[in-house]
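FORM 7B: Structural annotation worksheet

SECTION A. Query
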Amino acid sequence: MMILSIDETRLEEAAQYASNVNRMKIDNCETITTFYKKILSNFRKRIKNEDDKVLVCTEQDKIVGVLAILVETNDKYIEITKGLYAAENFQEIAMLFYTYIKEKYAGFHLDAVYSQENKEAIYFMQSIGASCISPDIKMKLVNDDFQPSKENKLIVPITEKYYKSFCRVHDENHKNVYWTGERLLSNLNKFDILIALDKDELVGSVVSSVYGDKKKDILFIETDSNHRRQGYAKSLLEKSINEAFLFGINEITLQVVMRNIPAKKLYESLGFLKTDTIYTYSIESL
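SECTION B. Predicted structure
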């Protein structure tokens, strides 16, 4: 068996294989669509980025495994967000992908996200010595379940004037994450950032990103330490959610650390429901 980085010529074949594996409901990193066209669209978006890759494992030129990776070359970072598709011999194929990535991206930081149900993937990450971050609860909101309040804080899109204060608040709230405030601001084509203001001072922010077919993921929400428990987090969420639904988004997802009960209650008050428990595994340097 061998690992190949593919282009458009084999993308349809890879998407069909991934779709078939998902229908078997095995070895997914999270609940992913089984629709071939949606998977193909996601893979196509991936290869349009010069650094990102769709990898396949082949045996006698037949695809027996698929893995899509996000690569930030300048920052030496790799992220696996859609799991590894393999109908059989998962551990062997996973090791082949890992060996390929380790050789090609030596020294890069690797993050991989898996559902608690994907026991094979979790076992594999443990077997290669990856560190497990605290388990998160994945939650989902659809338009009909949204329960807005009457919070009236000033929430606006970020502008250059507030870049410095955004980085300070974000980095204070999210230590030791890859997506620092500076990196987020350097990739505004990928993220939507709204900020909360109090007398022209930035006191909070929410970062989100569109993915898949009319879905949005809320990635970060933070409030300055001096302005917590004043309704800013709720206002930020409601503004982000309202704008998403107005622009045709059908589903909004987010993750919350399992032990963060206050945050979980806040999300539930807006209509979010738990869908999964997920684990992030990290390797500091390949």
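SECTION C. Observations
The first helix runs from residue 11 to 23. The chain is about 30% helix and 35% strand.

SECTION D. Sign-off
Analyst initials: ____
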